[in-house]
Automatic annotation (TrEMBL):
This is Endonuclease domain-containing 1 protein-like. SMART domains: Endonuclease_NS (SM00892), NUC (SM00477). Residues 68-283 form the DNA/RNA non-specific endonuclease/pyrophosphatase/phosphodiesterase domain. Pfam families: Endonuclease_NS. InterPro entries: DNA/RNA_non-sp_Endonuclease_sf (IPR044929), Endo_G_ENPP1-like_dom (IPR001604), ENDOD1 (IPR039015), ENPP1-3/EXOG-like_nuc-like (IPR020821), His-Me_finger_sf (IPR044925). One of its GO terms (molecular function) is nucleic acid binding. Coiled coil: none annotated. It comes from the Eukaryota. Residues 69-284 form the ENPP1-3/EXOG-like endonuclease/phosphodiesterase domain. It comes from Seriola lalandi dorsalis.
Amino acid sequence: MTQLRTFDRWIMKMSRSCSLAVAILVFAGGWCLCAADVGEFTPCLQSFYRSWPPKGLEGTPICQRFNNQYRFATLYSRPRRSPWFSAYLYRPPVGKRPSANWKFEPQLTYPGADGNMIPFPPGPPDQNVMESQAVNLDYINSTYSRGHLNPSLHHQSHEDRSATFTLTNVVPQKAGSNDGPWEILEQTVNHTLSAYCLGDAYIVTGIIPYRTDDHWLKNHRVAVPEYMWSAYCCPKYNNSLPEELKNTFPTYAAIGRNDPNSTEEIVPVNKSAKTQFRGYDVRQMPLQTLEMYLKDRFNTVVSVFYELCSGSD
């Protein structure tokens, strides 16, 4: 991961004027890399509690834009052709789930391209797009589904929900997880936040890679995570919480298995689960415990929320 840019580094760059970055050019197109090599990122700071992105993880920041509006933030891994995490503001969903009209990020291919994500056109994928990111062909006839990090379920408007259907917000996820315990987690978070969160709720959902020997989709282009994780921060909430929810505010975290053959040191296996969901368990835990596991796997301190979501507003 040493070849990737750290969040701390690009946040510092973002605070400088664009004129200071004018000397940093993409030689093919002569484009200025102001804050990020995929366009402006500042509008997506609102996706983070206290405008403070997670610290410790490395990658390419993308401010996900759809129909000329910025929607959510992603930290993307170019070598893995998949995201490390996506971060967003939760909103109670309205209406039906949008159709899966999958999109790509043109700025990963051409830094000077328009900032809007683009639906994949019919026919074979553009070779330049294939070199820079995942395409639908990577998932066809694989044993993995397209697993949202930022789920459509956690957004209100039709456009915000549609914007989650970009492959830069997707990782290879087993159906036993995506259609089972992980889907239940997303629904549980939706019900909990809609009922008890009184202000903004900030969610970060990411992945944990294998400790050694990355796993890949069939064509060795897109890396497969061993686990998925998610955490929310709701600073203002209803104090009249049911007993079973008193440990889920202001923060909540969970890790889910994406490999039924993984060891049980992080997430135990429920042997009585239905066969199709067995080995894809999700374990709820305090935010500090999640960060402990992230530190162990990434070999660096990872901080998901500013002051563990305990800073005064």
